Amino acid sequence: MTTHTEASVRPQAVISGGGSGIGLASALRLARDGFDLCLLGRREEVLRQAADRIREQTPEARVQCIVADLQDPAQVARAAAEIDGSVDVLLNNAGGNVLDRGEGLEGIAEHFEANFRLNVLTAVLLTEELLPRIARPGGRIISISSIAALRGANGYGAAKAAIHGWMMGLAEQLAPELITVNSIAPGFVPDTGFWDSRRTPETIASRLAQIPMNRPGTPDEVAGAVAYLAGPEGGWTTGQILQVNGGALLGRG
Ligand SMILES: NC(=O)c1ccc[n+]([C@@H]2O[C@H](COP(=O)([O-])OP(=O)(O)OC[C@H]3O[C@@H](n4cnc5c(N)ncnc54)[C@H](OP(=O)(O)O)[C@@H]3O)[C@@H](O)[C@H]2O)c1
């Protein structure tokens, strides 16, 4: 589903899960900062509505939308081949918390595998496929992990922690080519699809109790961290976990 045709000289940001929540806020912010966009996700209508919002806000930005399940190697390869233009910024944002956990070892294995596929494979497969196309010098790879990686949370926390280990190795590998690789670990950001089925008063109260600033974060605040790592001032920051969480861990990671 390509929604533009004209040539452009703006740099491009490829955003997985760019149709909602933190991904959409990042897309809107990066469009304002001068980027064209390629949004990926599984739901075509969500991507289409996001593209409309971006175009309304920043008519000069080109927006390409590609429907793909990024857990699937074949779909990643097909999606990557469809991406038009340069890849100056890759934001690995797609993910989520698979809470289901069945009985016994089978249930544990399914829980860990599902979280790993959704949070690790989505980032690793897309990055590997796009690696030859990431801008050199100056490319940026940013992966959204979570406070859960640092605080612990079952298969989800373990999968997000895997993102950190992978990110650090890639940062070292790509530094000589002047590509930066970082993670952003958000805390509680309830105005997202991530919390749609769990946004109860009890959950909100328990999460707020863990935040010294006593308020949740917003998708725009995480997008601000993305904009820093994607922008000119982020060029010497690599291999880092940027925590955006209202002081929930006070830098202890
Ligand atoms: N919200 C929070 O409090 C919080 C805190 C820490 C970390 N995070 C992380 O932030 C990231 C963004 O989540 P969000 O909070 O903005 O929630 P969200 O609104 O649910 O965004 C997740 C996005 O990822 C896409 N996605 C999920 N699985 C995918 C797949 N297999 N292939 C392609 N796209 C996929 C979803 O679109 P489709 O369903 O259409 O595919 C959706 O647009 C996630 O990695 C999440 O783990 C969130």
How does this structure look, described?
- The chain has 253 residues and is an alpha/beta fold.
- The chain has a single domain, classed as 3-Layer(aba) Sandwich (Rossmann fold).
- The protein is 43% helix and 14% strand.
- The chain has helices at 21-32, 44-57, 73-82, 104-130, 148-151, 154-174, 201-208, 219-230; strands at residues 12-16, 36-41, 63-67, 89-92, 140-144, 180-186, 241-244.
- It has a 7-stranded parallel beta sheet, with helices on both faces.
- Strand 1 (12-16), helix 1 and strand 2 (36-41) form a beta-alpha-beta unit.
- Helix 1 (21-32) packs parallel to helix 2 and helix 3 (73-82) packs parallel to helix 4.
- The chain is globular and about 50 Å long.
- The protein binds NADP nicotinamide-adenine-dinucleotide phosphate.
- Residues 16-17, 19-23, 40-43, 46, 69-71, 93-96, 118, 122, 144, 146, 186, 188-189, 192-195 line the site of NADP nicotinamide-adenine-dinucleotide phosphate.
SSE layout:
Layout: E1 12-16, H1 21-32, E2 36-41, H2 44-57, E3 63-67, H3 73-82, E4 89-92, H4 104-130, E5 140-144, H5 148-151, H6 154-174, E6 180-186, H7 201-208, H8 219-230, E7 241-244
Parallel strand pairs: 1-2, 1-4, 2-3, 4-5, 5-6, 6-7
Helix pairs in contact: 1-2, 1-8, 3-4, 4-6
Residues 16-17, 19-23, 40-43, 46, 69-71, 93-96, 118, 122, 144, 146, 186, 188-189, 192-195 line the site of NADP nicotinamide-adenine-dinucleotide phosphate (NAP).
- Please report the distance between the alpha carbons of the first and last residues: 40 Å
**CATH fold-type name:** Rossmann fold
Radius of gyration: 17 Å
Rounded mean pLDDT is: 95
How much helicity do the residues have?
40-55%
Total strands: the figure is 7
How much of the residues is beta strand, in percent?
5-15%
List the helices and strands in order.
Answer: EHEHEHEHEHHEHHE
The main pleated sheet reads as: 7 strands, parallel
Number of helices: 8
CATH architectural designation: 3-Layer(aba) Sandwich
Task: Catalogue the unreliable spans.
Answer: 1-6
**Overall body shape:** globular
Structural class: alpha/beta
